[in-house]
Amino acid sequence: MKISIITVSYNSENFIESCINSIISQSYKDIEHIVIDGDSSDGSKDIISKYKDSFCYSVSVSDKGVYHAMNKGIKASNGEYLLFLNSGDHFYSNDSLALF
User: Fold this and answer.
1) Is 94 helix (H, G, I), strand (E, B) or coil?
2) Helix, coil or strand: residue 76
3) Residue stretches of the chain with pLDDT short of 70
4) For residue 6, what are the β-bridge partners?
């Protein structure tokens, strides 16, 4: 069962790396991670670029707000389930998805 994790971000330089690492560290591996960045002006884009090989899809362009970004993520997703994990969030443990 594939889970699509959609992360929306805007100027989240201080948080996004923790979010990304919490997804990469999951013991459950049938995940596609989609990152939608609203053309951040801080260091977020550099951090996202650093992890680009771990994403199924990522884009960094201006949008019309958080819900517009979320809808872009939904359109890019292919999973049976969608999960939104925003850039300032992270999973409680490395087994969070395995327990689902």
Assistant:
1) coil
2) helix
3) none
4) 34, 84
